[in-house]
Amino acid sequence: MQVLKFGGTSVGSPERMRRVGELIDDGLPKIVVLSAVSGTTNKLVELSELIRKQQIEVASIKLAALREEYRLFVAELLPTSPFQEKGQAIVKGIFDETEQLLWLNRFESRHEKWILAQGEVISTQLFQLYLEYKERPSALISALDFMRIDEHGEPDLDWIQQRLDLLLSQQHPLATYFITQGYICRNASDEVDNLQRGGSDYSATLIGAAIRATEIQIWTDIDGIHNNDPRIVENTWPIRQVSYREAAELAYFGAKILHPTCVIPAEDRQVPIVLKNTFEPQAHGTLISSASSNRTITAIAAKDGITAIKIQSGRMLHAYGFLRRVFEVFEQYRTPIDMITTSEVSVSLTIDSDNHLPEIIRALEVFGEVSVDKDQSIICIVGDALSAHTEVTKHIFTALESIPLRMVSYGGSSNNISILVSRDAKNAALRSLHKHLFQNTNTTLSVNF
Ligand code: ASP
Ligand code: MG
C-alpha cells in the first residue's frame, strides 16, 4: 500500500482538490493524507489568539469570513444534490462548534489545539465526500483514532501501527482510498493535539512507516528538492535521488520542501519517500531512499535567523568538563545547538531560537567573556562522502574567497560541510558556490544529475 500526502496548496481550491481526486485514482489501495486548505491553519492560529486575548468581536467576524470561504468552496466542489447539502452540513457543524468556543469562560490550550485541528478535519471530510460524489470507493479514517504522541511529544509508532492495522482491516472492507488528516493527533492525555506547524509530512511518513508502505509520496508545488535555493540562485535543478541522510540535512537546513523530522520514521523502516509536484505530475521528482546519491556534492541549502555565541575563557586551556557545563546551559533553556567549533581557549556555537538568549548569555558569562552575533545564516553543502574528495574544500573556499566566514564546520559528518556567514552575505555566497560547485566545467565535482 502507498501513502500519498498533499499539502495545503495542492488542496487550496475546489479545482485543485478535484485534481488530487484524479491523481490518486489509479485503482490501487492507498492512504491519502491531506493538509488544511492553504491559509486556513494561519487563520485558525489568528482566531485562537484573538479568543485568548478576549477580542471576541473581531474573532467572531474572522470566523464568519472563514465560514463563508468554505461555503463557497463547497458550492463549487460539490455542485449537485445531495452532496452540496452534505458538504454544507459539514461546514456548518464544524463552524458552529468552533463558534461555541468564543464564549467560554476559560479558553485553555486544549481548546486552542482543537481549533487548530479543524483545518485538516474540514479538508479531509470535504475531499472524501467529493470522492463519494465521484463514486470512488473511499473511506475517511480519523487521525485522532490512530495518531498519538506521548508525554514528551514523541509519536508512539507501535500504537499508531496497531490502531491503523485494525482500522484498515476491519472497518472498511470495500474501500480502496483511505483519506486521513495530516498534522493532527491525540496526546498522552487523550486531548486533540498536533505534530507542530508543517507537520503533515511527518504524519505521512509515520503512517508509511507504521504500515510499512511500499512508498510514501509527498506532493507539493515544486518538483522535488533543488540543488540550490531557486528563489535566490538561477539555473537550479531538481535532484533525482538522495539518501535519507542527505535529505535530512537538506530539510533541516532550509530546503523548505520537506519537514525535517519526517525522514526519520521512513529511514527506520526503509520506506522510500518520493517528492512530487502536483502541478507537474509527470516530472520525475526526488526519490529519497537508503541508496546513496553517488554524488560528491548534491545540494546547497541555507538557514537564516541564526545567532552565533562565542565564549572565550582561559579556563578552557587543558580543562575537561568545560564543554559539558556550557552544553548544560543550553539544555537548561531547551535550546538546540546547530553548529559548534572550538579552539583551545574559546568555543563558538549557533542557535536558531533567541527565546532564552538573555538568560543563556547570563549563565555563560560565569565561564568567561561572551559575544553574540545575530542575523547569521548557515550555509550547508550536502553530498555523499564529501570528505573523501580533497578538491571539494578548495572549490568551496575559492567560491567564498571574498566573503567573511564566521564559522566553518567540517568533518562532523561525511554528508555535510556547514559555513556560517552574515545574513547579508548569504545570497552572494549561495550564487558563488553554485557557480563553482555545479557550473564550473573544470571541476570534477558535478557528476551526472
Ligand atoms: N496545516 C498545518 C500547517 O499549516 C500542517 C501542514 O500543512 O503540514 O502547519
Ligand atoms: Mg505544508
UniProtKB/TrEMBL annotation:
<dbReference type="InterPro" id="IPR001341">
    <property type="entry name" value="Asp_kinase"/>
</dbReference>
<dbReference type="InterPro" id="IPR018042">
    <property type="entry name" value="Aspartate_kinase_CS"/>
</dbReference>
<comment type="pathway">
    <text>Amino-acid biosynthesis; L-threonine biosynthesis; L-threonine from L-aspartate: step 1/5.</text>
</comment>
<dbReference type="GO" id="GO:0009089">
    <property type="term" value="P:lysine biosynthetic process via diaminopimelate"/>
</dbReference>
<dbReference type="InterPro" id="IPR054352">
    <property type="entry name" value="ACT_Aspartokinase"/>
</dbReference>
<keyword id="KW-0808">Transferase</keyword>
<feature type="domain" description="Aspartate/glutamate/uridylate kinase">
    <location>
        <begin position="2"/>
        <end position="277"/>
    </location>
</feature>
<feature type="domain" description="Aspartokinase ACT">
    <location>
        <begin position="379"/>
        <end position="437"/>
    </location>
</feature>
<dbReference type="InterPro" id="IPR005260">
    <property type="entry name" value="Asp_kin_monofn"/>
</dbReference>
<dbReference type="GO" id="GO:0005829">
    <property type="term" value="C:cytosol"/>
</dbReference>
<keyword id="KW-0547">Nucleotide-binding</keyword>
<dbReference type="GO" id="GO:0009088">
    <property type="term" value="P:threonine biosynthetic process"/>
</dbReference>
<dbReference type="InterPro" id="IPR001048">
    <property type="entry name" value="Asp/Glu/Uridylate_kinase"/>
</dbReference>
<keyword id="KW-0028">Amino-acid biosynthesis</keyword>
<keyword id="KW-0418">Kinase</keyword>
<dbReference type="GO" id="GO:0009090">
    <property type="term" value="P:homoserine biosynthetic process"/>
</dbReference>
<comment type="similarity">
    <text>Belongs to the aspartokinase family.</text>
</comment>
<keyword id="KW-0067">ATP-binding</keyword>
<feature type="binding site">
    <location>
        <begin position="220"/>
        <end position="221"/>
    </location>
    <ligand>
        <name>ATP</name>
    </ligand>
</feature>
<dbReference type="InterPro" id="IPR036393">
    <property type="entry name" value="AceGlu_kinase-like_sf"/>
</dbReference>
<dbReference type="Pfam" id="PF22468">
    <property type="entry name" value="ACT_9"/>
</dbReference>
<dbReference type="Pfam" id="PF00696">
    <property type="entry name" value="AA_kinase"/>
</dbReference>
<comment type="pathway">
    <text>Amino-acid biosynthesis; L-methionine biosynthesis via de novo pathway; L-homoserine from L-aspartate: step 1/3.</text>
</comment>
<feature type="binding site">
    <location>
        <begin position="5"/>
        <end position="8"/>
    </location>
    <ligand>
        <name>ATP</name>
    </ligand>
</feature>
<feature type="binding site">
    <location>
        <position position="231"/>
    </location>
    <ligand>
        <name>ATP</name>
    </ligand>
</feature>
<feature type="binding site">
    <location>
        <position position="120"/>
    </location>
    <ligand>
        <name>substrate</name>
    </ligand>
</feature>
<dbReference type="GO" id="GO:0005524">
    <property type="term" value="F:ATP binding"/>
</dbReference>
<protein>
    <recommendedName>
        <fullName>Aspartokinase</fullName>
        <ecNumber>2.7.2.4</ecNumber>
    </recommendedName>
</protein>
<dbReference type="InterPro" id="IPR045865">
    <property type="entry name" value="ACT-like_dom_sf"/>
</dbReference>
<feature type="binding site">
    <location>
        <position position="41"/>
    </location>
    <ligand>
        <name>substrate</name>
    </ligand>
</feature>
<dbReference type="GO" id="GO:0004072">
    <property type="term" value="F:aspartate kinase activity"/>
</dbReference>
